Amino acid sequence: MTTITAPTVRTAPPAKRRRKGTGAAVLRYVGIAIVAVYCLAPFYWMLVSSFRRSGDIFDNSLLPTTWSLESYAQVFDSSTMFGTALLNSLIVASITTALALVLGIFAAYAIARLNFPFKSSILAIVIATSMFPGISVVVPLLRLFSDIGWINTYQAMIVPSLSFAIPLAVWNLTTFMKQLPFELEQAAMIDGCTKWQAFRLVLLPLAAPGVFTTAILTFIHSWNEFIIALSMVNDPAIQTATVAISKFTGASDFQAPYGAQMAAGVVVTIPLVIMILLFQRRIVEGLTSGATK
Amino acid sequence: MTSSLSVDAPRTGTPRPKGKGEGSMATALLSPTFIVLALVIAYPLLSAVYQSMFSSQSGLDADGFVVEGETFVGIANYLDIFTGSDSPRFYNALWNTSFFTFVSVSLETVIGVAFAVMMNRAFKGRAFLRAAILVPWAIPTAVSGLLWRWIFQSNGIANELLNQEILWTAEGMSAQIAVITAEVWKTAPFIGLLVLAGMQIIPEEVYEAAKLDGASGWRQFWSITLPLVRPALLVAVLFRLLDSLRMFDLPFVLIGPRKSSVETLSILAWDESNQLNYGAASAFSIILVIYVAIIAFVFIKLLGANVAGDSEEKSVRRMRTARRKAAR
Question: Name one GO cellular component term (chain A) (predicted).
């Protein structure tokens, strides 16, 4: 966080001066600074605000005058059930990711490696479903789930989440599996493997990096899901973190507990930021592989 | 590039004895996915169409008995939406959705492309930038809504920096600006990322050749970079368009539900279903699906966005024309 200094972005040097060396270098650094400040400043503001005392929450200094964990204590105060909400998010996102991956691996293998009619239309259908608006899934399923008593259950959040998780997984995995050389499977089959063995013993281990990348992307999408969790659940004990956070009114305050909201926001975002720092290369690869192929 | 996703048509005439049993294996592997998609996409779609033709208002039937529950009303819900009592709210939501989408996607595209150019030039800080640019993308939209509500607080940092006293999160134009700002912040880096990936597969020689022919940096951008990243850019913009049309979380958390200046179609449908008006809610959600489909269709037809993949000859041809144009 030390990289963010006050937004003293120097204006670009006059373009007329065409001194290649220094001018271009300065421009380059100004560019980096602009991108970094743009992306990180709001997040930084959330972080800083979460460490202020509730008394000086409205200070607009760049660093807290007095550092305090008061807001975090407020967030994890037992009455807010925020810890439960985090656990719920973890459960829902993990199961959604696991299911989407299992189904996605099979489907992607078929689309990427097998020969059968209507292949391109099948992939097109899967991609098209990913554009389906969440609300159009939620409204009818809400009705169905209330009839069968699924409201306030995990499956009421997991099943609708598959509507975006499966297309995402299938598309990503298909792109990855297409890049693997066909010769390997053929060699395995010449050595006496069945198609299924070739898939399980040769292709799957090779596709592991792609599966991992897809898992990260699917997990992040499921973790961030809002409209399904908001509609299907009204019991705070089952709520996910994103919904809990939006309903965050604090323990006793009449005023909106901004400090606690910021602290809760940081807590929900930190796992994702850690994932970014560890796996940024993979995430970028996964996000862009569909677009540039 | 060789593994283009768009298999134009199953090749006929070339019998492939090897792939004989593959059809049934493919069926077995694909059916679980399609069963689930049928349950979570096809069923809701059909069910919504069906439910949209019912109304849950209780009333008196022909014999004077009170009827509780659903009555078949045909297309009355749709008539209500387009011409009847629901229409002002609907047209407002339709306008908001379109306005947010158009303005934010335009801004995102410009900012995203600018970011990609800046990142493409940065060699030392690239890893750092890549991590930084993923932060807005990864932050849950609900959290980003809270974050921007805090920034746009009446005595918050936005008003201090601008030296203004605007009530951003109340209603009206300022609330719309707040939503668009938050939306653009979160998603412009995503476009930047996709465009950057498109830029990195442009071979350096293309630029070298252009430089030798004396093309300026600006000229190189317009005649080489932009045409060559066009496929990646179009896919990114299409995704953003469709995603933006279903916008829900951000206005919902940042401003709140039932605020007419930021009510999108998704929020409107959600609000109706929240009040157990499933008929109207279903009708709104069907209209949204059709709207999204129309936009996707028009976009793909008009601009030729190739979601499923670009064929190799096409991109080679495009690269050649770009080089020619830059040299001119």
Answer: plasma membrane
Q: Are residues B67 and B125 in the same domain?
A: no
pLDDT, tens digit (0-9, with 9 covering 90-100), for B235-258: 889 989 999 999 999 999 998 888
For B140, list phi and psi in degrees, rounded to 5: -55, 140
Check whether residue B62 and residue B179 sit in a common domain.
no
A-proximal residues of B, 180-239, CB under 8 Å:
185, 188-190, 192-194, 196-198, 201, 231-232, 235-236
Fold of A81-247: MetI-like fold (1.10.3720)
The pTM of the whole model exceeds 0.90: no
pLDDT in tens, A46-96: 999 999 887 777 777 888 888 888 888 888 887 778 899 999 999 999 999
List of chain B residues whose C-beta atoms are within 8 Å of the C-beta of residue A180? none
Residue B65 sits in the same domain as residue B188:
no
Q: Is A103:B33 a contact under the CB 8 Å cutoff?
A: yes
Residue B183 belongs to some domain of the structure: yes
Q: Please report the residues numbered 142 through 161 in chain B whose beta carbons come closer than 8 angstroms to any beta carbon of chain A.
A: 142-148, 150-151, 153, 155-157, 160
Instruction: Give, in degrees to the nearest 5, the angle at Cα B176 between B175 and B179.
Output: 90
